[in-house]
Amino acid sequence: MMIFTGSVIKEQGVTFAIVLVKNSFLNNSSREIEEFRNSFLPVFGQMPIILASQDSRGTFQYHGRKDIVKFLANIDPSRIPWKEYTTR
Length: 88
Hints:
- Strands 4-3-2-1-5 form a five-stranded mixed beta sheet.
- It has three helices and five strands.
- It is α+β, with helices and mostly antiparallel strands and about 90 residues long.
- The longest helix is centred in the middle third of the chain and has 9 residues, at about 30-40.
- The chain is globular and about 30 Å long.
- The termini are close together.
- Strand 3 and strand 4 form a beta hairpin.
């Protein structure tokens, strides 16, 4: 079983998922990041999956499809409807 914090957002005709990860996780190799992202396919299907992390100052960093990352970088993270997911 896996418990994680995430969100599904539909914006400008694009539906995508965001998964919150530890800040240090985004320092992993791109292969490891991609494998981790792919582990969420059973939960979110084929929608783009963006990884989000927050540093000690509360600043968010996003990793994934560039157009979605650019969009997220320009909104207040408090607008993201976070929720806890539990998967088997």
